[in-house]
TrEMBL record:
Its EC number is 2.7.13.3. The lineage of its organism: Bacteria, Bacillati, Actinomycetota, Actinomycetes, Micromonosporales. CDD domains: HATPase_UhpB-NarQ-NarX-like. The chain crosses the membrane at residues 47-66, 98-116, 145-162. GO terms for molecular function: kinase activity. It is an enzyme of class 2 (transferase). This is histidine kinase. Pfam families: HATPase_c, HisKA_3. Residues 300-385 form the Histidine kinase domain.
Length: 399
């Protein structure tokens, strides 16, 4: 995109340079090719002018050519140069209203000043245009202000319209850049949430399993072996999750059946059981009606809540309620353990990730210690009911 814009800009500068050279060549033909008097004989015979005046006119002609050639790169300087040359030519025997080049150069430079110049360029161009033509009118003894105003409105007015369109395009480009930066930030946060959920849950389970294995290593070798095998299983699961995340980051979408789902939450309860606790799960409604995005986010939220319960309230009983009703997915996780005081502030990365996931769906999160002990997390994720084709049904399971 930037390369294409750069090529277009170079072509534009080259075209303007060619226009300046062409205008200078046309002016030389007007000066040095013997022609009849200008404007049906009203102008002087340039061929009869002294050589000094021809030299002056040639210098002014070079100024016009430079003004046109640089009108896009240096719009204010070009407008000033064209106006100065136009005013200077008003003091020569050949008024600038007679040849074609002076008026064309003045109009082109002032148009560019208004269209592509900076903040002060429109004022500089307007002063250069009306000032130089006003002086020329006084020098010629004319009062053709209507012509000056007509040309100003017909040529400089569209220049202002071009300026407005360029400003609007610049605003759109800036807005697109801001949105792209925001999208990148959101993507980084999403990846950070996924990494936190995957690694935090897996490492917590592995630490608990390793601790259990160490505790019974001398007294119960079989139990220690089972715990170490569980560490291997969880490690493989974490590696699989990380590989799936890398596939998505490389631009390939994971198949729906390969994504985490609330329909497969048994592995999530393992951490609580390993910590010596019990988990009771109730599912109300048809989970197949939940859109994939809400299903994956609900899985990650439940994963974080159960990991926190296993980490901060080992040995407690955890009640999990998953409800699909109407147009929302509702999750309720509560444990009866005392939990450390640090759980009450709700400032950890886990609870922050839960809130961020809920905010993506316009949902709500309530998390904090209960009055009668334990910790509670309530999450509601709204979704579009039309994303589902089947009616809701009610089922219940307990593990």
């Amino acid at each position: 995109m930037s390369a294409a814009l750069d090529i277009r800009s170079r072509w534009r500068r080259g075209a303007v340079l060619v226009a300046g050279v062409a205008l200078f060549a046309f002016g030389l033909a007007e000066l040095y090719v013997p022609l009849a008097g200008y404007v049906e004989g009203q102008g002087p015979d340039i061929a009869a002018l002294p050589g000094g005046w021809l030299a002056v006119l040639t210098v002014l002609l070079a100024g016009y050519g430079l003004a046109v050639a640089g009108c896009t790169a240096y719009p204010r300087a070009a407008a000033v140069l064209a106006g100065a040359c136009f005013t200077a030519q008003s003091l020569t025997p050949v008024l600038p209203e007679w040849p074609v080049v002076p008026l064309l150069a003045l109009v082109a430079a002032c148009f560019a000043g208004i269209a592509v110049g900076g903040r002060a360029a429109p004022a500089v161009a307007a002063v250069s245009y009306f000032g130089s033509l006003g002086i020329e009118n006084l020098a010629a003894g004319d009062s053709d202000w209507m012509f000056i105003l007509f040309v100003g409105l017909a040529v400089l007015g569209p220049g202002y319209a071009v300026r407005m369109r360029r400003a609007q395009a610049a605003r759109l480009v800036a807005l697109a850049a801001e949105r792209e930066a925001a999208a990148r930030t959101d993507e980084r946060l999403r990846v950070a949430r996924e990494l936190h959920d995957i690694v935090s849950h897996g490492v917590s389970v592995m630490v608990l399993q390793a601790g259990a294995a160490q505790a019974v290593l001398d007294s119960d070798a079989d139990q220690a072996r089972e715990s170490l095998e569980a560490v291997q299983d969880v490690g493989r699961e974490v590696v699989t999750e990380l590989r799936r995340l890398l596939v998505i980051l490389r631009g390939a979408e994971a198949a729906p059946e390969g994504l985490p789902s609330l329909r497969r939450i048994d592995p999530l309860t393992a951490a609580v059981r390993i910590a010596g606790g019990r988990v009771e799960v109730r599912v109300t409604g048809d989970l197949t009606t939940v859109p994939v995005a809400a299903d994956v986010s609900g899985y990650r939220i439940l994963q974080e809540a159960l990991t926190n319960a296993a980490r901060h309230a080992p040995g407690s009983t955890v009640d999990v309620s998953v409800e699909v009703g109407g147009n929302a997915l509702r999750l309720h996780v509560v444990d009866d353990g005392p939990g450390p005081a640090r759980r009450s502030n709700g400032t950890g990365h886990g609870l922050t990730g839960i809130r961020e996931r809920a905010e993506l769906f316009g949902g709500t999160v309530t998390a904090g210690p209960r009055v009668d002990g334990g910790f509670e997390v309530r999450v509601e994720l709204p979704f579009d009911p039309e994303a589902s084709a089947s009616a809701l049904s009610t089922t219940g399971t307990t593990t």
